[in-house]
Design goal:
It is built from 2 helices and 4 strands, in the order H-E-E-E-E-H. The chain is of the alpha+beta class. It has one domain: Roll (SH3 type barrels), CATH 2.30.30.60. Strands 1-2-3-4 form a 4-stranded antiparallel sheet. The termini are far apart. It comes from Flavobacterium hercynium.
Protein backbone atom coordinates (compact mmCIF):
# COMPACT_ATOMS: atom_id res chain seq x y z
CA UNK A 1 0.00 0.00 0.00
CA UNK A 2 2.89 2.34 0.75
CA UNK A 3 4.34 1.90 -2.73
CA UNK A 4 1.04 2.76 -4.36
CA UNK A 5 0.75 6.05 -2.51
CA UNK A 6 4.38 6.77 -3.35
CA UNK A 7 3.72 6.43 -7.11
CA UNK A 8 0.27 8.08 -7.08
CA UNK A 9 1.60 11.60 -7.85
CA UNK A 10 3.53 10.27 -10.86
CA UNK A 11 0.47 8.43 -12.16
CA UNK A 12 -1.65 11.54 -11.67
CA UNK A 13 0.91 13.67 -13.56
CA UNK A 14 0.92 11.19 -16.44
CA UNK A 15 -2.89 11.21 -16.63
CA UNK A 16 -2.98 15.01 -16.61
CA UNK A 17 -0.29 15.23 -19.29
CA UNK A 18 -2.14 12.69 -21.41
CA UNK A 19 -5.48 14.49 -21.27
CA UNK A 20 -4.12 18.02 -21.68
CA UNK A 21 -1.27 17.47 -24.13
CA UNK A 22 -1.15 14.12 -25.89
CA UNK A 23 -4.84 13.44 -26.54
CA UNK A 24 -5.65 16.87 -28.09
CA UNK A 25 -2.62 16.57 -30.36
CA UNK A 26 -3.74 13.12 -31.54
CA UNK A 27 -7.26 14.44 -32.12
CA UNK A 28 -5.92 17.37 -34.15
CA UNK A 29 -3.74 15.05 -36.27
CA UNK A 30 -6.76 12.84 -36.95
CA UNK A 31 -8.86 15.86 -38.00
CA UNK A 32 -6.09 17.07 -40.35
CA UNK A 33 -5.85 13.61 -41.99
CA UNK A 34 -9.63 13.60 -42.50
CA UNK A 35 -9.43 17.10 -44.00
CA UNK A 36 -6.64 16.06 -46.38
CA UNK A 37 -8.56 13.00 -47.53
CA UNK A 38 -11.79 14.97 -48.01
CA UNK A 39 -10.26 17.47 -50.46
CA UNK A 40 -11.83 17.47 -53.91
CA UNK A 41 -11.22 19.25 -57.19
CA UNK A 42 -12.55 22.81 -57.11
CA UNK A 43 -12.11 23.40 -53.36
CA UNK A 44 -10.69 26.78 -52.39
CA UNK A 45 -7.69 26.38 -50.09
CA UNK A 46 -4.92 28.29 -48.35
CA UNK A 47 -1.55 26.66 -47.80
CA UNK A 48 0.38 26.90 -44.55
CA UNK A 49 2.79 29.27 -46.31
CA UNK A 50 -0.08 31.58 -47.31
CA UNK A 51 -0.75 30.73 -50.97
CA UNK A 52 -4.40 31.02 -51.97
CA UNK A 53 -5.67 28.74 -54.69
CA UNK A 54 -8.18 26.24 -55.99
CA UNK A 55 -7.55 22.49 -56.19
CA UNK A 56 -6.99 21.52 -59.83
CA UNK A 57 -5.80 17.91 -59.53
CA UNK A 58 -5.41 15.37 -56.75
CA UNK A 59 -2.92 12.54 -56.37
CA UNK A 60 -2.37 10.18 -53.47
CA UNK A 61 -0.01 12.43 -51.49
CA UNK A 62 0.17 15.56 -53.64
CA UNK A 63 -2.20 18.18 -54.95
CA UNK A 64 -1.93 20.64 -57.82
CA UNK A 65 -3.47 24.01 -57.10
CA UNK A 66 -4.26 26.87 -59.45
CA UNK A 67 -3.17 30.28 -58.25
CA UNK A 68 -3.25 33.66 -59.96
CA UNK A 69 0.32 33.08 -61.14
CA UNK A 70 -0.08 29.52 -62.39
CA UNK A 71 -0.19 25.97 -61.10
CA UNK A 72 1.74 24.67 -58.11
CA UNK A 73 2.34 21.09 -57.02
CA UNK A 74 2.27 20.68 -53.23
CA UNK A 75 2.06 17.97 -50.62
CA UNK A 76 -1.41 17.56 -49.16
CA UNK A 77 0.03 18.18 -45.70
CA UNK A 78 1.01 21.72 -46.81
CA UNK A 79 -2.65 22.78 -46.89
CA UNK A 80 -3.88 24.58 -43.78
CA UNK A 81 -7.08 23.13 -42.39
CA UNK A 82 -7.93 26.16 -40.22
CA UNK A 83 -7.24 28.87 -42.80
CA UNK A 84 -9.03 26.94 -45.56
CA UNK A 85 -12.07 26.43 -43.33
CA UNK A 86 -12.13 30.15 -42.50
CA UNK A 87 -11.85 31.01 -46.22
CA UNK A 88 -14.75 28.73 -47.15
CA UNK A 89 -16.83 30.00 -44.24
CA UNK A 90 -16.57 33.61 -45.48
CA UNK A 91 -17.73 32.73 -48.99
Amino acid sequence: MGQLTQFAPFLLMFVVIYFFMIRPQQKRAKNEKEFESSLKVGDKIITKSGFHGRVAELAETTVIIETMSGKLKLERSAISMEMSAALNKKV
